[in-house]
Records
---
Amino acid sequence: MSDVPLSEADLDALVHDWLTWDQAAEALGVTPAKVRTMIKDHELAGAVPKPGAGPRVPADFIQDGLVVKGLPGLLTLLHDRHFDDRECIAWIYTDDDLPGRPIDALRENRGSEVKRRAQVLGY
């Protein structure tokens, strides 16, 4: 993994496709207010990827009209380890201890290996 702290990671370089809250709401079939609630409840994570962009959600977090299986549990686990949303997104897109990025493992229904890796963070 890079020597750059997760809090300082360039999210715009890590995440190639971002959705506005309106676009995320449309993809999930909910309202933008529900997307905001989902972010607050750690079902989704959102961040401002670059100055002036406004808050966004990584497009990879939504698959087939649903939040990617295992993502809410992973986000809760990371938040319990005092990660903020920016750090969660950076870890999900950069942790190279797995075969591939954690987001790829989640999208391929290999979430248990991602959660195991996240559980040992900080120890």
---
Amino acid sequence: MTDASLPWSHAPVKVGLVGAGPWARAVHARVLAAGPETQLTAVWARRAEAARETAAPYGADVAARFEDLLDSCEAVAFAVPPSVQAELACRAAEAGKALLLEKPLALDLPSAQRLVDAVDTAGVVSQLVLTSRYNPATRRFLAAAQGVDAVGARACWLHGAFLGGDFATAWRLEHGALLDLGPHVLDLLDAALGPIVRVRGTGDPRRWIELTCEHASGAVSQASLSGSVNVERGITRIELFGPHAELVYDGAALDHEESWPVLRREFATAVRTGKSGELDVHRGLRLQTLMAQALEA
């Protein structure tokens, strides 16, 4: 695991931010500007006033055009809807920029594949913002999971953000919990129990969807996903079962502030070494493929 407390001996990576919504302001701009591994150089958004509000606290420039943003940085972070990300990230890759991408990569599998092809053709670094994966507690859980012979698992990812508020956005309300929460759940189940070889989905992603996953190990996992239920606090939980004692992951108890220094250090390290890590665009494509399979079922 990356030790984000060690001194950073390289020049900070100059990062331009695409997007100026609540998530961009609360996470991307703040985390990238904190350094020392990265420097927020500019912000571009379709709403110029929102871009100014996002950039101002950190002394970053406001790019008048997306092309101007590309001219000001060596890496681009995205905090926009998946359809917008899929289009603009291809252009950024073609311009030779490293990519810090949100999940899902795109709204559909063909668009995600085009983005992967653009990244591979350009040979640029990519990294996916799967928030919990950069948390030390999550990594301890995944390390522990490698030492148990799990035959089954249950997962539950529930919240009420789609009922109203900043994150009840158009793409989330249209496509539901599978595209929003599915990448997190499928990624962790795949990492904890071994590769998922088949996934089936039942229900309505806009209300409640159940996933049943078959793993190469022979294990079977099930996951309940919803963003449209009234719960006092989000429920983010995975339980692994087998001949061993139950192994539990409680994501709701995580301090997400512990994730950001690790994410920032690993992205900057990837850019400086020219080598993407495990959580790159190809990981995003695998998760997109699994979600497409669930929708087909």
---
Amino acid sequence: MAFEERNLAYDLSLFEDDDKQYTTVPQSTREKTKSGANAAKKKPSAETAEDRNAEKGQRKKYSPLKVLSSVVAGLFVVGALATIIMGQAQLTELNRSIEKKTEELKQKQSQYTQLDMNVRSRYSTAIVEEYAKDELGMSKATNYQKEFVNLSDGDKAEVLTEESQNIFSTIVDAVTGIWS
């Protein structure tokens, strides 16, 4: 557990011989790592990116084109989300109005059924016949009151022809009459 809390850098170049020629690490790098290892031994605190930038004296520069593109992309995302939310709100309102109209339709159908049953019970055939017999003094028609009409005197067909006004049409009609 004690090893997890430490943030020390290990310099393996300390174990190498300086006289050997197969060393690939340049001398200047070795000196930096030795001084960095000594500094790490003296001060075991972790550096942050802000500390490094402050030491360098540099501030990160932002490109105006990148900032503008980020702002436009952000506005596009916000606009898309606003459109989706507005669409969902309208959809919810329409669903509520459909539900209200459906409930109103059910009530009207129930009322229609109820009124239809009342009308049928009041004006049934038996009740109308009884009212006509008792109140109006009417009775059913008998055979001697019925008069039958005969409409079948045979089938007739009449052809209407126009009278010819000139002699040529009468000759043509006569010739066609012969051939037919």
---
Amino acid sequence: MKIYLARQPIYTKSRSLYGYELLYRNSEQNFFPNVNADLATRELSYNVLSEFDFSALTGGHMGLINFTKEALSSDLPMLFHPSNLVIEILENVMLDDTLEERLRYLKSENYILALDDFIDDGAYDSIIPLVDIIKVEYGLLTDAKRREIGQKYKASKQLIAERIETEEDFKSALHDGYSLFQGYYFSRPTVLSKSTVNIASSSYAQLWREASKESPDFDVLADIIKADVALTYKLFRLINTPLFYRGNRIASIKQALILLGIKETKRWIMLLLLRDFSKQENDQITKQALTRAVFMEKLFDCMGQSSLAQTAYMVGLFSCLEVLMGEENALSALASLEVGPEISEALFKKEGILHQALNCIQCYEKQQWSTVEAFASAQHLDEQLIPSLYVQALSYADEIFAAQQAAPEDKTN
């Protein structure tokens, strides 16, 4: 599956880069599709946080994202670090006391607030003191109106002139007091895409039940996440972003959750669950990955190498990434996760005891008994151990995926 977004640069008076507006896309078509605005905000935020590298997207500059009223009222903005996010308040957001209090809170947490498509009709007067940036659709207002806004606010706010399409527009906006500029004159939005993996529907159901609790349990969440290759991948992607990365090599899923913290973990899970459920699922491939992971973990315990059991589990779980994402994408994905050289060595260099064990279960799946018997003999294992462990692992995976009874529409209850 591919995911998409677009970015459009914003420039200063001297034509140096200020940042990028990040825009929702769901295909290579470079326009906003006819989708619900709340869904677009959630999906874009999710992709920026869990799939793309926010710092790489913006090059360390500011990233501007549109937020609906629902998104502003949720914890969604708090998933981003305030140092490089500009929260754009959409022009159709209806203010009320609750939302204004929420905006005051975000301001107190050092988030930068911007008003989008501002026309200065009095509708947002009550929050003007909270706002740092005012965006004006420069090409859609009269000369008198955009000049009036520029003169009125240039001393107290940063003013972005949008829809700058010609050199004349740029010079006019400069003269009117605008300090930042965006539009086709500088650059059209550029669509970016990357491959990703789907989360199994059974994992959604279990995560929803646990995350809905007032105090989710780390151990329960770790067990659910470790059963799903896509969830594990997305968690490691998140924990390796600049917002959470602390230079630690992550040895287990529970360690990643502890570093993330229960508050951020719950926000991340809820964000996952708010995504659209219409995408194709990969339950069978994910089930195979889980079976391999459990088999590998049990095998290394039985081999007296418990210190490698967790790493073996990860090797088994990530062994299906190539099928889910393609070889090149899987290799680059694992390289970005900082999961340790043993995993990449086993999966791609095809070396070491971890690779030998993975090859054993892969051959068992294909009924290539001679290779399985050779591994068991080399490791001095009872010939019945491998079939027994495989049955245990398969039974465990069957039980996990039996939790698939919750339908997508039930997950908003």
